[in-house]
Specification:
This protein is α+β, with helices and mostly antiparallel strands and 79 residues long. 16% of the residues lie in helices and 41% in strands.
């Protein structure tokens, strides 16, 4: 696989990454999967809120806001 994995919350605004793995468990993991965050899905960091958290991400045609705590459990490869 790639040596350049990073958590989603570290993806710079305007950049695109590909989901590699989810490290969350239970209901949070189920919610992320339901949002379409499955392996090989492309995610783009669109905009940060004025306070910096949450960040809006483009995922499968929808814009979804995730807090850093949630996004830190999604491992991506920057593309």
């Amino acid at each position: 696989m790639s040596k350049d994995l990073l958590p989603l919350h570290m993806l710079p605004i305007g950049s695109i990454g590909k989901v590699i793995n989810l490290t969350s468990m239970g209901n949070v993991r189920r919610r992320m999967l339901d949002l379409g965050l499955i392996p090989d899905t492309e995610v783009e960091a669109v905009v940060k809120s004025p306070s910096g958290d949450p960040v809006a991400y483009q995922i499968r045609g929808a814009v979804i806001a995730l807090r850093s705590e949630e996004a830190s459990k999604i491992l991506i490869e920057k593309i």
